[in-house]
Amino acid sequence: MKQLKVLSVFGTRPEAIKMAPLIKKLDQQPQIKSNVCVTAQHREMLDQVLKIFSITPDYDLNIMKEKQTLNTITTEILVGLEKVLDESKPDVVLVHGDTSTTLAAALAAFYKKIPVGHIEAGLRTNDKYSPYPEEMNRTLVSNIADLHFAPTPKNKENLYKEGIKTNVYVTGNTVIDALQHTVDKKYNFNNKKLRDINFSQKRSLLLTAHRRENLGKPLTNICNAVNKLVREFFDIQFIIPVHLNPAVQRTIGSILRETPRVHLIDPLDVQDMHNLMDRSYLIMTDSGGLQEEAPSLGKPVLVLREETERPEAVEAGTVRLIGHNERKVCEVASDILSNINKYNAMSKSINPYGDGQASQRIVQALLDRYFNNKINNFKDYIRAI
């Protein structure tokens, strides 16, 4: 039996988390020969995810360098992948989301006339500089890709508006699949500082902030808001995994290092992060992925950005978009912390990102495309999302 040769390419921690459950499903399918290429756009954080999900890459470009730029990342991936594609000769290349790895890998496959499947397709803010460079990366990949795996019907509509109307599949988001593997009520944290935190005595607020557009004054505003909130609410504590970006570390450290009930910790591996989310009362973030993950755990999310490419969660009521104005951050967070009815309305809203079967649907779509294996209940799922 001829196997479909699938090459999955990713390079950052968030990509790895979302691709890992799909790779596991691909490995289980006898009609598919699955290979993995990592670019190591991130290195240490990527390796943590690979270890947790027991994934051994077939190819590792290992491009990460000190002071790397968007230009160096893109060009090194293009050059490195040329050799990988010549050797592996895939029938289809799968890329994920919106990173420089995603764009460069899709472009490298296009140059070899190899079909591209885009996981997490169709997210848009319609502002090419926010998030930067992710919004443009996604848009360009959509114009290259042959198969579009959209998490939600709204993502599908975005593609339709751009004239992309064939081979668009609504699957749910694979990050929900990943949570099934990582979250455990009896989990013991790897991070020592987390093991020392008492989650039963204080309401824990998880905060992450690191996006390029929030560096400088916006991040300062966010940190000042944290200071005010811990003074206002004596029953809360903040847990802040501090991104490795020196600009992020300087700002957060200078403002919050001495603040009582603010725990500044190192970046977390995926298991620690997912289980920390599960034990948190409220999440404040400028991350995209957390907007998808937290609703599955029943955790309200306050998004510290002016726009989001994930409006479904806002419409569903699980997420509120509040920006980074110090006064507004304090007002909205105070309102949620003070009003249990408003908190419950957010925490009990339905997650719009699926049921944890996205990876299986993507595999089924590939089989339908290349082997004419019909997808069971696929259209029913599209209507139900």
Automatic annotation (TrEMBL):
<feature type="domain" description="UDP-N-acetylglucosamine 2-epimerase">
    <location>
        <begin position="24"/>
        <end position="366"/>
    </location>
</feature>
<dbReference type="Pfam" id="PF02350">
    <property type="entry name" value="Epimerase_2"/>
</dbReference>
<keyword id="KW-0413">Isomerase</keyword>
<comment type="similarity">
    <text>Belongs to the UDP-N-acetylglucosamine 2-epimerase family.</text>
</comment>
<dbReference type="InterPro" id="IPR029767">
    <property type="entry name" value="WecB-like"/>
</dbReference>
<dbReference type="GO" id="GO:0008761">
    <property type="term" value="F:UDP-N-acetylglucosamine 2-epimerase activity"/>
</dbReference>
<dbReference type="InterPro" id="IPR003331">
    <property type="entry name" value="UDP_GlcNAc_Epimerase_2_dom"/>
</dbReference>
<protein>
    <recommendedName>
        <fullName>UDP-N-acetylglucosamine 2-epimerase (non-hydrolyzing)</fullName>
        <ecNumber>5.1.3.14</ecNumber>
    </recommendedName>
</protein>
